[in-house]
Amino acid sequence: MSDTSFSVTAPxxxxxxxxxxxxxxxxxxxxxxxxxxxxxxxxxxVHPFVAAVAILFIALGGGAAGALNMWYDADIDRxxxxxxxxxxxxxxxxxxxxxxxxxxxxxxxxxxxxxxANVFAGLFLAFTIFFYVVVYTVWLKRxxxxxxxxGGAAGAFPPMIGWxxxxxxxxxxxxxxxxxxxxxxxxxxWSLALFMRDDYSRAGVPMLTVTHGRPAARGWILAYTLALxxxxxxxxxxxxxxxxxxxxxxxxxxxxxxxxxxxxRRDEAVAEADGFAAEKRLFRFSLLWLFGHFAALLAxxxxxxxxxxxxx
Length: 312
Ligand code: HEM
Ligand SMILES: CC(C)=CCC/C(C)=C/CC/C(C)=C/COP(=O)(O)OP(=O)(O)O
Fold this sequence. Notes:
It is a single chain. The chain is built from 16 helices and no strands. The protein is mainly alpha-helical and 312 residues long. Helix 3 (48-72) runs antiparallel to helix 5 (95-116), helix 3 (48-72) packs parallel to helix 6 (119-140) and helix 5 packs antiparallel against helix 6. The structure holds protoporphyrin IX containing FE (HEM) and farnesyl diphosphate. The chain crosses the membrane at residues 27-44, 50-72, 93-114, 120-140, 147-169, 175-196, 217-235, 241-261, 282-299.
């Protein structure tokens, strides 16, 4: 995420980089990539200009959600080392500016997506922003360790939005892409929460590692990784998958499972002593895992256009 972006501006003096940081550009890059793949693999071709405009507004909508999240979370972001330098807690952007910026961008992106693509896609983007900001950030994040499981749905909607841009609707394939991101979110986030537990504890955010301890989180990471495997294979065998997707899925799933098993077996004292190296590795690998699956869908589609790829 973009909280690591530094600015030379003094407190109260917002620079362009600060407003860019409000969009959480690093996280949103993968969100937007999954939306792009959802759009491209759909069976209805989209004019390249419409596709480019749609992706731009999905990116801006995702960024708006990030800005609204940072507006609401400024108090807890101030208490965590990872987030204390963000524009709002650091005082470079006021809460009012972040709120206004987020709301304006959210409104513009949803309306423009509805006009450029279709009303369903625009409403779906609005619902996703609502889900991330209101359901996850405002309602669940500070209340329950299930926050990221339920709230994670927001991050899983973008490939469905991409699909909706092309088709105007929902399908089994777009639901399988949703399931892939939805089941991936807990191992993605909880592996990070294993080595960031103290930050969340300081801020009073009830992440699983704080409320139930690290050993429980290790067990849940393994459980979700096991659930992720059938979802990834089902997607590979669907109409948007093919032999390439299946190969990538088998390799990445095996590596993810190996990493999750390793974390599960780890002794807490050993993990603490080596600075949570294996946990950090699995977190980084989770990003590669998701990117790899969606890149494989894209490659399968490209092969399909040349007469190869796909199951048919
Ligand atoms: C509720 C769901 C999620 C939670 C709680 C979560 C949480 C986090 C956190 C706390 C970080 C560390 C960011 C930092 O450097 O400060 C992170 C990194 C990241 N997340 Fe997630 N995440 C979620 C869903 C997603 C989704 C759906 C995607 C993309 C599809 C995603 C992509 C990324 C990426 C690309 C990074 C690395 C950013 C970097 O390079 O620093 N995350 N996530
Ligand atoms: C198109 C669209 C609207 C997309 C939204 C996609 C989305 C919800 C992605 C989730 C990304 C994320 C960083 C969640 C963590 O928030 P956090 O508040 O727990 O993380 P933080 O502590 O780093 O702020």
